[in-house]
Amino acid sequence: MAPELPHLADPRTAAAVELVWREAHLLDRKQYHAWDRLWAPDGRYVIPIDPETEDFESTLNMVYDDDRMRRMRIERLTSGHSISVAAAARTVRTLSRFVVQHHDDATLTLSSAQVLVGHRREQTFVLGADVTHRVRLDGPEPLIQEKVIRLVNSEDAVNASGFLL
């Protein structure tokens, strides 16, 4: 018999959900340096094109950031030198449908649905995605080990966004 996965009332799951909600709050407010502090040093931020892939290193991705690349992306978004930043979208995102996929003593993997509403250049748009967060729980506070955003339209042309998903 497979071990029972923790449910939403489990303190580990609650800590992971709280981290995901805090992340969404920081991203919507463009507080990218504070967002970066939510990450484990070896964390990966991935937006694959293929909605089924698990092999991110060997397939084409819209984003495949390790710690160094994530910080470079933050620098571009906060420096004021990028054209996409000058007209950056305002965003409001909602994450729900939390399901624990896996857990062990050190990590918990949580899937959720994200609906992001953005507004830029007098146009409003909606992006939907299945999101998976692998959260490290073995330190003083939870940290994001990996975030995978599977956009529902990932195989279509996606315009430059000027914000983080």
UniProtKB/TrEMBL annotation:
One biological process term in Gene Ontology: 3-phenylpropionate catabolic process
Domain of life: Bacteria
Extent of the signal sequence: none
Keywords recorded for this protein, A-Z: Oxidoreductase
Molecular function via GO: oxidoreductase activity
Tagged with keyword Oxidoreductase: yes
Cross-referenced PANTHER family: 3-PHENYLPROPIONATE_CINNAMIC ACID DIOXYGENASE SUBUNIT BETA, BLR3401 PROTEIN
Family statement: Belongs to the bacterial ring-hydroxylating dioxygenase beta subunit family.
Protein name (record): Ring hydroxylating beta subunit family protein
Organism of derivation: Streptomyces himastatinicus ATCC 53653
Upper lineage: Bacteria, Bacillati, Actinomycetota, Actinomycetes, Kitasatosporales
